[in-house]
């Protein structure tokens, strides 16, 4: 098995995480994405495998997205290892457990930042290659990231955590009240695994970019044209953008560096999306060094 072929929706020390392989790789058309009511994306990173709106809400969302970036950069804690002591667990502090390179954890991290919760939700970074035993034993038996310690409970699954943070904490709304946008949001969230699978499979395969990956990228391009009140999936920045941007970030780097393929060529909506999302401080604070991501991934793929 390829060294990047991780179990479903889990992270390893590699910056590239393989998405689910249990879903069909077919790419629905831009207007006919089917929601699977019983399907849940296992959107988290597995430590075990590492070692081996109403108008007012819409205005609030737009204002938050347009707000100037803070000049202060958050000082992030070092990653905890097997020799690290645990924090004082369940002491009333809300903690978001992440791995800095994990795209699934990045989703919850962006949501926390966008809502301005840096002082209310503490980041705790886990070293996936040298994980502390207490994380599984005392915090999250699933032994994956991200997870959220809140109100003496621990919750997981990245997309669930994004929604949980949005509904249980103050700050700009991550979903508008508009019913059409809410419906499209659910369709796009249901499509994330298929998009990630098509893109990932093409990156690790030999040869040119696959037809499936091209179709998946074209689907994203079309989805970004549905609403004309902004450059994002629902017009204004939302939880849908949070779900996709960690993976678009990586796929742009990997397709360019490994396949010599520009994912934005002929896709002006995607290019605009990338340009505009990189103006959002809540996201850029979570980005990893592109060269590190590329070189680390090429090494794991055995590419000189």
TrEMBL record:
PANTHER family noted in UniProt: GLUTATHIONE S-TRANSFERASE L1 (PTHR44328), PROTEIN IN2-1 HOMOLOG B (PTHR44328:SF16)
Listed Low complexity bias regions: 12-32
The molecule here is called: GST N-terminal domain-containing protein
Question: GST N-terminal domain: which residues?
Answer: 92-173
Q: Known InterPro entries for this protein?
A: Glutathione-S-Trfase_C-like (IPR010987), Glutathione-S-Trfase_C_sf (IPR036282), Glutathione_S-Trfase (IPR040079), Glutathione_S-Trfase_N (IPR004045), GSTL1/2/3 (IPR044629), Thioredoxin-like_sf (IPR036249)
Q: Where is this region: Disordered?
A: 1-48, 64-87
Q: Which Pfam families does this entry report, sorted A to Z?
A: GST_C_2 (PF13410), GST_N_3 (PF13417)
Which family does this protein fall into?
Belongs to the GST superfamily. HSP26 family.
Which is an annotated GO molecular function term of this record? glutathione transferase activity
**Domain spans labelled GST C-terminal:** 178-301
